[in-house]
Amino acid sequence: MMLTVKRDGSPLLAMIDDNAKLRMDLSTNRDGSPSLTLVDKKGELRSSLFLNEDGSPSLTLADDKGKPRAALGLTKGGDGLALFDENGKIRNSLIVSKDGTPSLELVDAKGGTRMKFRVGADGSPVLGLCDEKGTVRELLGMRTDGSPLLTLCDEEGKSRARWGLGNDGAPLLALSDVKGKDRAMWVLDKDGTAMLSLHDEKGRNREFLSVGADGVPHLYMTDEKGEVRAMWGLSTDGLPALGLCDEKGKSRAGWALDADGSPTLGMIDAKGKTRAMWSLDKDDAPMLTLYDEKGEVRAVLGAAHTESPDGVKTAFPESTLILFGPDGKQMWKTP
Prior knowledge:
Radius of gyration: 40 Å
Distance between the termini: 132 Å
Shape: rod-shaped
Mean pLDDT: 90
Structural class: mainly beta
Largest sheet: 29 strands, antiparallel
Helix content: under 10%
Low-confidence stretches: none
Number of strands: 31
């Protein structure tokens, strides 16, 4: 053991082995910060424990060549553990920030961060994979409700695709443009309804395709205000129909096929009353029907069919015109 004073005036306590080789020394710096150093038989520095100027402690471990391989420290910004390779480059770091958030980083041989793992203040974990430039390209995380989410990013680190599950277990796939706006989204509800929505450059839903749990498909198109302006779909019987709506989303026109394949085109007023109906019957005979504001038939042009109170059915040719009064009674007919 040897007690001496260094050139800067700070004390030094050295421990010497039987071969007169330094194995440990305890000293202080000019600012009074203490340090403890351990040396192996070959004289290589293997471990050092010291306090920084701010009073934070640090511990360093070195290999048999004296190169640092691990460092543990406590700082005002947080606590950390770093692991080094044989070239002295950091390859792994574990940090607990001041707010208690832990993070783990894995670094390649060139010094680029390739993997990041952290647990947020809300307890949600996130795993990030980085490219050779250190840009996060893939994120795998879990929301606070326990639902998982996978995010794929472009070379600038911007989210371009998200795939996850909702808190009800329903899957979701979203695609985004370079500005971060969602442009396409596919969702499968817990009841089995599949939905695909397409968005414009402002992120507004403009087209919506769905297939219900009953297997019936529907297509909706909306304007810039989000109002449905066109609908196209099939009924549960497999019959096609097309509907057109005004700026308030109210149905104003509809086109459909009956079970026998006969087409029908209807026009509706702003109050939701049918005012005109143009159709072909099963024999392909045309007929145009006009209605008043109460929805009552007032005129029929074309191949009409009537039935008397006693059940007698009468068919009229395509040139027929029938007019009805407000009470629904026939007022005039030709021929």
